[in-house]
Amino acid sequence: MDYCIRELEGKQAHDPLFMKKMNNHKSPSSPSSTDPHRRVFVNGPVIVGAGPSGLAAAACLKQKNIPSIILERSNCIASLWQLKTYDRLRLHLPKQFCELPFMEFPSNFPTYPSKQQFIKYLENYAETFHIRPKFNETVKNAEFDSKIGCWKLKCQSSFKGDVTTEYVCRWLIVATGENAEAVVPDIEGADEFEGVIRHTSLYKSGEEFRGKRVLVVGCGNSGMEVCLDLCNHDATPSLVVRDSVHVLPREMLGKSTFGLSMWLLKWFPLRLVDRFLLLVSWLLLGDTSQLGLDRPTLGPLQLKNLTGKTPVLDVGTLAKIKAGHIKAKHKEVKTSYSGICRWKIREF
């Protein structure tokens, strides 16, 4: 692969037509000593995002002797993990399913590494493969220029003030993640609410809510674990369930639910594996609909494949709901009078 790339680059370097296109392309905006805009030609792919996927892509390219650069809008690698996650977060899957290419987790790490341990692993990964992202570089626009056969990325540097850099490359790898941006709905009456409204990306610990009543909207993995964390800090959380959800135990029959599912799928059809997961979940967790958590019609794996909706892996929240420490409320109708989240609810 590297031989082919070098041969292609060598031909382009001595191709008068290609060089003419490049010169004509950059002549109108050639940077001067006083021009805050500059252009950088990259000999290899540009990777956008220095999270786990971006680091893994860079490491795989290095193994093939293919140079690359990573552009990261934040000031650190894995910014989502470092800046936008709560303190008690752990990997929900066993570490062997979360390791990056060519480097295992340390043997002394637990089965489910903590947030701090995972960040340390990623930092060691970047150091091991000599990955040096360009931080504080926000990609504002990326488009393919068919005239020169290259991508053009316009970046704004938050560290260098108004300096804009245009990166030109033949290959573009987008590794920005699916949870990079917080989705905050417009809620009628939010301006009149006297309490704190906080997205989970800004939530760190239940300590600041000790002794308070807290409404958590959404019963995904984050919502369920935030409720558990609030309980552990003597807060009184209520959980708004907006839709049906599959809740599975994190482990089944002494093995991780995820690992067991992947093994079963090698031998059995997906629907049969779904039935097995639901049967064991019912035996271990009981009927979750009695707690206000109705299950979808489709099985957990089939639903994940069709919609991308991930089942919730229980880490102790259901026990708190059963004990009455967390009130699960199902949203039915939104009312129009003032105040945040005034719902007509069915309480369980």
From TrEMBL:
Q: Which reaction does it catalyse?
A: indole-3-pyruvate + NADPH + O2 + H(+) = (indol-3-yl)acetate + CO2 + NADP(+) + H2O
UniProt pathway annotation: Plant hormone metabolism; auxin biosynthesis
Q: What family name appears in the similarity comment?
A: Belongs to the FMO family.
Q: What is this protein called?
A: indole-3-pyruvate monooxygenase
Question: What GO terms describe the biological role, i.e. biological process, of this protein?
Answer: auxin biosynthetic process
The EC number on file is 1.14.13.168
Q: Which SUPFAM superfamilies match?
A: FAD/NAD(P)-binding domain
Any matching Pfam family = Pyr_redox_3
Which keywords has UniProt assigned to this entry? Auxin biosynthesis, FAD, Flavoprotein, Monooxygenase, NADP, Oxidoreductase
Q: Which domain of life is it from?
A: Eukaryota
Q: Which cofactor does it need?
A: FAD
Cite a single GO MF annotation.
indole-3-pyruvate monooxygenase activity
